[in-house]
Amino acid sequence: DAGVIQSPRHEVTEMGQEVTLRCKPISGHNSLFWYRQTMMRGLELLIYFNNNVPIDDSGMPEDRFSAKMPNASFSTLKIQPSEPRDSAVYFCASSPPTRTDTQYFGPGTRLTVL
Amino acid sequence: GQQVMQIPQYQHVQEGEDFTTYCNSSTTLSNIQWYKQRPGGHPVFLIQLVKSGEVKKQKRLTFQFGEAKKNSSLHITATQTTDVGTYFCAGLLSNDYKLSFGAGTTVTVRA
Q1: Do B43 and A107 touch (CB under 8 A)?
Q2: Nearest-angstrom CA–CA distance, B80 and A41
C-alpha cells in the first residue's frame, strides 16, 4: 500500500515567492495533519483536518500560511509570501478513522527560502 | 511551549551497550506514543501505550508508561548501528487528536 505522498521533496525559493506544498493521504484515512520541523522548535502541528474540514489551525504561524483540503485525497499548504524563517521540513501525516491518534507521516518537503 | 519534555537530547552509545530515553508530561496523558526518525527520514510510529504501568516490548526495545500516566521511557538493549536516529515520544492530551511531541533523543552509535 502507498503511504502518505508529498511533493515536492525539496523546494528552494527566494524570499517573497509563493510556495505550495502538496499532500496525498493514505486512502481511507480521514484525518490529515500538517507539521513543521526545525532544529529550534522541533515538530509543530500547524493544522488538522478531519473529513476535509479544518478543525484546528491554531498552529498556523501567521496569515502568510494557508491550507486547504478540497477532497479526501488531496491537501495543500501554501506560504505567500515566503520568508527565510519559513525554511524547515514540512510533514503531512494522516490517520484512519478508527485510530485517530496514530499518525502516518509522509516523507516531508524540505523547504529552503533564500 | 512544549508540554512533553524528553531527555536526554543526545545519546552517544557504544555498540552493544544499553540506553534509556525518558519522557515527562506536566499533565496526565490519555496515551503516549513513540516514533523513530532516521537521519533524513520521517517519523515512523513504533508503539502506543495506554494503560497505567503498561510495559511493551519490541525485540530489543522496551517501552514503559508510568503509573500516573505522566511519564514514559524507552530502553534499548545491545544497541546496534540500525538504532541510529531520533526517538520521539508524543503524548495525547485532553482531546483525541492533538499529539504533543517531545524534542526527541538523537542517538548515535560508535561501532
Answers
A1: no
A2: 29
- Chain A residue with Cα closest to B104: A42
Q: Inspect the interface and report whether the beta carbons of A55 and B97 lie closer than 8 Å.
A: yes
pLDDT band at residue A61 under the 50/70/90 scheme = confident
Q: How far apart are CA B86 and CA B36, in angstroms?
A: 6
Q: How far B35 CA sits from the closest chain A CA (Å)? A: 10
Element (H, E) at B4: strand B4-7
Residue B12 has φ and ψ, to the nearest 5°, of -105, 120
Mean pLDDT in residue range B86-90: 96
Confidence of residue B1 (pLDDT cuts 50, 70, 90): very low
Nearest to A69 by CA among A92, A90, A87, A86: A92
